[in-house]
Description:
The complex is a heterodimer.
Chain A: H1 2-10, E1 15-20, E2 23-27, H2 28-38, E3 43-45, E4 53-59, H3 63-72, E5 77-82, E6 95-101, E7 120-128, E8 131-140, E9 145-151, H4 153-163, E10 167-171, H5 181-187, E11 192-196, H6 203-214, H7 230-245, E12 256-257, E13 265-266, H8 268-273, H9 289-293, H10 299-310, H11 316-330, H12 333-343, H13 349-357, H14 363-384, H15 389-392, H16 394-397, H17 400-413, H18 434-444
Chain B: E1 15-19, E2 24-27, H1 29-61, H2 64-90, E3 96-98, E4 103-108, H3 111-117, E5 124-128, E6 134-138, H4 145-159, E7 169-173, E8 177-182, H5 194-208, E9 214-218, H6 226-244, E10 247-252, H7 260-263, E11 268-277, E12 280-289, H8 297-303, H9 308-327, H10 352-362, H11 370-384
Parallel strand pairs in B: 3-7, 6-10, 6-11, 8-9, 9-10
Antiparallel strand pairs in B: 1-2, 4-5, 4-7, 11-12
Helix pairs in contact in B: 8-10, 9-10
Amino acid sequence: MRQYQQFKALHPGYVLFFRMGDFYEMFWDDAVLCNRVLGVTLTSRNKGAADEIPMAGVPFHAVEGYLRKMIAAGHKVAICEQVEDPRQAKGVVQREVVRLMTPGTLTDESMLESSAENHLAAVASGISTDGFRFSVAWVDLSTGACIAMSADRQAVLDKISQLMPSEVLIPELASGQPHEISVEIAALGIKTITARPAWQFSMHHAREQIQKQWSVTTAGGFGFADDDPALLATAAVLAYLEETQKTSLQHLRPLGRHLAENYLAIDPASWRALEIDRTSRWGDAAGSLVETIRRTRTPMGARLLRHWLRNPLRDIEHLQARQSAVAALVESPSSLKSIVERYTGACDVERVVGRLAVNRALPRDMAALSRCLEMLPELIDQLGKLAHADDVAPELAAMRPFCIEQCAYLRGALKPNPAAHLREGNVIADGFDADLDTLRDKAANS
Amino acid sequence: MTHAHRDKAPPAGWIRKQTTVNSERYITDDLKQLEIETTEASEKAIALEQQLFDRIRTALLAHTARFQELADALARLDCLAGLATLALERRYCRPTLTESRVLNIVDGRHPVLEQKLGAEFVSNDTRFGESDTVALITGPNMAGKSTYIRQTALIVLMAQIGSYVPAASATIGTADRLYARIGANDELHAGQSTFMVEMTETANILNNATESSLVILDEIGRGTSTLDGLSLAWAIGEHLAAQVRCRALFATHYHELTDLARQFAGVRNLNVAVREWNDQVVFLHRIVEGGTDRSYGIHVARLAGVPRPVLDRARELLSELAVHHVSGSRPIGKSRRPAGVATGQIPLFGDPARDLLRDLAQADVDSLSPEDAQSLLREMKHRYVP
């Protein structure tokens, strides 16, 4: 129990899933919470004794489903595993927290809705040459998108209301209380608001984080003034990702600057009233504009359509470029059909790369990437046949050699239908590595 | 070794491992060694596979940026092809985009309702010239006012993501801001009355809209008493037309507002075409130029199931009101005026009969539960019928 309390103290704000044999056990308040959220039976350790402890548990083989429920309810979970074989342990089995799961930092396919982004946001405030400003930065760890803006308080709240991040980080005041903006953020319906130490929202920290992440000495290259409070929020997000992921974040895109004046502004009340992403009466996506007009065939396309609707453009030239691409496809319905057929079933390249980066990729992710790369040359050839091919996807044609090369590499490296998990073996193709082939021969020839 | 041979001694080096019904199983040291080696080899193979997997992962991640470019290109293609598929399927048109304030949508449709209703859906034009400001749409509820103003907003939004739009043709002067303030919201804001929410949202529009904005307002002012509501609606319309000078579609059942068009050059009146037939009203869902001067609230009330006696009384009051308007002297509803209610104080819009009609027209029949409908009716009866 001392070991349990030690890990619990190291991860405040997290529900600790403590591995004990074939179960993950939760104690005290965590046990009560799991009983309420997961519906698992509340029992107790040392029953009847003075030091009776409330306890609840879930079997290890079914833990995924329980984790999904906990995260969906807005809770954060720390998973503590046994890291040595209990049979060989002297005294208490050695354990370690191997994973921190929070609503805003998910990457697993099974935990995410494929057609929606999953944002982690941070809110900060500071004084710049423009005076006192609030700021918000948001990241989708699963796709690598990373954007920040500074504005007045209301505009920041409006942005949060539109993004509806799964988790929002706010600074803790000197008093130890969370910043008072948390009340307004909670009122928007944000379930998980995490208070973080104030120094993580400081300019000094921002410079450090931004240099570490993007190897730049100034955010000027991303279009930010050096004292832009948007950088404070960005730093807080980066620090949180670093702490929860414990991996490199090399798939994070260059920091984007959201410039409100480039877009058609739609305030939250109007957004709701127009039922763009959900109906106002039932709150469902079904019957909303986006679901009614969506004809996309990949999760990436579905997410981009939502992104476009959230950020309608004002610049006519950009809009006309999109129109021309649509026109080129509309003009040739039969080509359109065969183009769509060629990429239907393409895997979620963006999220696969995200999982590779944070080391959560499964063998099937690589297999799917391989299959996707395999069909791309044909798609590119089909696109080339369009009358106005350059209007549609000019950047794809240049990637043909890359697709072929990477596809060849992956086909040589992976079995066509690899096992679900690495621990089962049968993932790497024969002939990829001589040592592996020898070991496999030995294992088979008995 | 089967039991048939059980009397024979096993060869040297054989170690008995297991006894079954018919035989004894032995293992030799060599076999034991082989078993250990096999198990070891497969364990080592799995460990090596994990290392190799990591190597492949690293090799792929060396191209992170290229893969992301690829993902972006695919996402964009999918999105554009999706819009093209939609355009072909629903017969959308490519809008002409301009930086002017012009809005000229011919045979516009509501992108969501059109798909739900199919051929039944009635298309409508939306026209704003360079100097047009507010378009007032009067007419009864359920006649398509809300659909019409929403479809205009959605068409502009779709045009500004680069999509084709549900119309026969369209010229769209792009907007900088899009505002939609629609009726009493169903959602409950903690501690705020519906009217407070409505006014907060309206204040936001009045303070921030610019000449390039598009504003749609549906039944502003219904969260308060009739007199307040009408006054507010009037003042808001005036402000949009005179100060903000944005393109605004203002759906209202306050017919008095149609007078705004006489005072401001950019203001126009539209109404919902209605055909009356045998005391029945048929809504054509077609928006036409001009104001209306009659409310079809009683008809809507009948559709909602308001009992016959109340409807009859409403008709009676309505005709009195008409007489009152003509003669301008006799207070209406005199025969059965509720005690304590002053009469004739505000000749323009203070008449209980009109209030009743207005309340009826305001009732959002679609969102009323049977219980709500009943209590609404009770309240009306209490207020207007002693």
